[in-house]
Amino acid sequence: AIWFMDDGSKSFKRRNGRIHAVEVTLNTYLSKEENEVIIGYFKDMWGVNWGLNKSKGRFRLRMGTQEAQKFFDLIRPYIIESMMYKVDLQFDHGSHLTCYALM
Known about the structure:
alpha+beta
């Protein structure tokens, strides 16, 4: 949870103006091999699957909507109040629109 609060991010993916998915990243910027160790740990210990993504010549972890739900449920109890927006899968822009990928 601490690592995600510092180096994690969430973005909503849109198609035709509507939210259709969530993408979560954890900016590790470690080697491919080091990231693979982290991916294995999360899978074996917590049942959470990360994918590997290369960005700006460095590696980071990435997951989609279904895995994000599992991951956020796991870390939410440890997230401080001011950072709860990072694990909120609701999209609020004037009105309460639920992320369509979660329906």
